[in-house]
């Protein structure tokens, strides 16, 4: 990689041209990705892509006037000092905040590059152009703000807020809730069956731990492999799978941890079981609340489905363990 200070004016202009072309394509990619979900924000990034195209034409004209038509094959990745960023633009269904943050980084990097390049240039025309582009990139953030104010009306912002909430539910709440429900309910029977069969806290804890981790792994893979998110807009399958698996494990561990009460304590089994029972009660009501809050399920219906179902599974585990 070349040091920035070692670049000639010809190479500086070549890097700038390739950078403007790349940034324009990235903004177009953002606009396409946001087109269906956030059409007004997509227009904003379309405008920014048009700005990058204008900058590229100015740079090309200056380059051809000073150095001819042949561009040296040098890009930002060949020069030390540029920010190393993950190519998030290759990922579909990014959140709007992630895309806007990425755009801010891009504009900051471009402004810094042009300011430093203008200081290094000796040709008056090249120096002036680079300085003007530095100012343009500095103002690009203001442009984005102005365009946001123009394009993103109150109704558009409200609509995008609704879309953002829907995406949050699809990508985070739904897999997390599915995991929490499975972990909290499916582990009740084996845990309490082991508890009432052995009356030993440590053995019961091991059964609950194994059931929780096993259920987490199973649910995580099932969620990740069920939908790649390309059509449903539910985001990265591995992110959803991770959330689902983690919440499944946590749901099972909630009422497993009380069985860490040492067996040497007096009435240790009943103390641990009483605490676990309280935890189960809290878990089931929390799930019912989340279903009512985010999944538009009537609260009483959610209570009936979750609390009653969980109570039945709990009773089954106790009956089998005590048999």
UniProtKB/TrEMBL annotation:
Keyword field: Membrane, Transmembrane, Transmembrane helix
Residue ranges occupied by any Rubrerythrin diiron-binding domain in the UniProt entry: 11-147
Pfam families, per the entry: Rubrerythrin
Keyword hit for Transcription regulation: no
Listed GO MF terms: metal ion binding; oxidoreductase activity
InterPro entries, sorted: Ferritin-like, Ferritin-like_SF, Rr_diiron-bd_dom, UCP035918_rubreryth/DUF125
Stretches that traverse the bilayer: 172-196, 202-226, 238-261, 267-290, 302-322
SUPFAM superfamilies associated with the record: Ferritin-like (SSF47240)
Keyword Membrane applies: yes
PANTHER family: BLR7895 PROTEIN (PTHR33531:SF10), RUBRERYTHRIN SUBFAMILY (PTHR33531)
Protein's name according to its UniProt entry: Rubrerythrin
Protein's organism: Rhodopseudomonas palustris
Lineage, broadest ranks: Bacteria, Pseudomonadati, Pseudomonadota, Alphaproteobacteria, Hyphomicrobiales
């Amino acid at each position: 990689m070349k040091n920035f200070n070692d670049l000639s004016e010809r190479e500086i202009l070549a890097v700038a041209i390739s950078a403007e072309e790349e940034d324009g394509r990235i903004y177009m990619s953002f606009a396409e990705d946001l087109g269906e979900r956030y059409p007004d924000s997509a227009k904003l990034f379309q405008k920014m892509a048009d700005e990058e195209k204008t900058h590229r034409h100015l740079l090309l004209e200056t380059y051809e006037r000073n150095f001819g038509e042949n561009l040296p094959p040098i890009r930002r990745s060949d020069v030390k000092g540029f920010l190393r960023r993950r190519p998030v633009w290759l990922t579909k269904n990014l959140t709007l905040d992630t895309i806007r943050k990425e755009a801010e980084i891009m504009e900051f990097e471009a402004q810094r590059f042009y300011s430093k390049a203008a200081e290094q240039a000796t040709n008056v025309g090249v120096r002036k152009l680079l300085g003007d582009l530095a100012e343009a990139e500095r103002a690009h953030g203001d442009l984005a703000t102005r365009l946001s104010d123009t394009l993103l009306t109150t109704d558009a912002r409200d609509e995008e807020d609704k879309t953002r909430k829907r995406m949050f539910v699809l990508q985070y709440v739904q897999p997390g809730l599915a995991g929490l429900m499975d972990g909290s309910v499916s582990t009740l029977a084996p845990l309490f069956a082991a508890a009432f069969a052995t009356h030993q806290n440590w053995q019961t804890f091991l059964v609950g731990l194994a059931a929780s981790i096993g259920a987490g792994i199973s649910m995580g893979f099932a969620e990740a492999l069920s939908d790649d998110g390309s059509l449903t807009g539910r985001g990265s399958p591995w992110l959803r799978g991770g959330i689902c698996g983690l919440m499944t494990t946590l749901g099972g561990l909630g009422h497993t941890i009380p069985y860490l009460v040492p067996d040497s304590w007096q009435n240790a089994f009943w103390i641990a079981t009483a605490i676990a029972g309280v935890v189960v009660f809290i878990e089931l009501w929390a799930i019912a609340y989340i279903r009512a809050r985010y999944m538009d399920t009537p609260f009483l219906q959610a209570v009936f489905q979750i609390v009653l179902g969980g109570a039945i599974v709990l009773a089954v585990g106790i009956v089998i363990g005590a048999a």
